[in-house]
Amino acid sequence: MGPATGGVSPPVAGPPSTTRGTMRLSIPGRRTYDLEHLVLDLNGTLGLDGKLLEGVAPRLALLKSLLRPVILTADTHGGAAQVRRELGVQVAVLEAGRDEALQKAEFVRDLGAERVVAVGNGANDVLMLKEAAIGICVLGPEGTATEAVASADLVVLDILTGLDLLLHPQRLVATLRR
Questions:
Q1: Is 127 contained in some domain?
Q2: How many domains does the chain have?
C-alpha cells in the first residue's frame, strides 16, 4: 500500500483468474462466473449528497484493470458530470419519469447479466441486484432498503469493503461458496 494507490492494496494475483476486463470466479456449489462489468449505483452507494465517499476513487481506478465500471444514477443531486470527470468511467443518467428500478435492470440485462456484478443500496437497486450474476448490497450512510438486502447475494458494511472484495476476489469465493 502506498500513495500511488491511495492506501489501497493492489489486486491479488493468482486464482481466481483475471485478465484485462474479465474476472473468472469459480465458486464451489454455485458455478463459474466470467465477469466483465461492474454496475454501481451512485447516491447512497458510492457517494452521499452527490459527492463521492472518501476512498472510492482509488479503488475504482484499480478495478478498471479487472472490470468495466459503469455508474447508474438519477442524478438527484446534480453531481453526475463531476463524478464522470473525477473517475473517468461511464456514468449513465436514468431517464426521468421512468421506473428507475426497471431502467437499472434493463441496463444490466443489456450488458449481459451473467457477466455483471451490481452494487447498490436502495429500493431502486433491487431488480439490478437480482438480475446480475453477483449482487452486492451496501449498508451506506444514506441507509439501505430492506428489499435490497434480501435481493443481493451478499451484504457489506460499506462501499470500500465491497470494492475490496472485487480487488481480492478470493474473499468473494470464501463468502459465496456452499
A1: yes
A2: 1
Is position 15 within any domain? no
Mean pLDDT of 129-155: 97
For residues 80 and 142, what is the distance between their CA atoms, to the nearest angstrom? 17
Which residues partner with 69 through β-bridges? 38
Cα gap 144→142, rounded to integer Å: 7
Q: In whole angstroms, what is the distance from residue 83 CA to residue 149 CA? A: 26
CATH code assigned at 147: 3.40.50.1000
- Tell the burial category of 5 from Cβ atoms under 10 Å away from its Cβ (0-12, 13-18, 19+): middle
pTM for the model: 0.89
pLDDT attached to residue 105? 98
Per-residue pLDDT of 79-108, as tens digits, reads 899 999 999 999 999 999 999 999 999 999
| DSSP single-letter state for residue 115 | G
Spatial CA neighbour of 153 closest among 31, 8, 19, 62: 31
Which three-class secondary structure state does DSSP give residue 137? strand
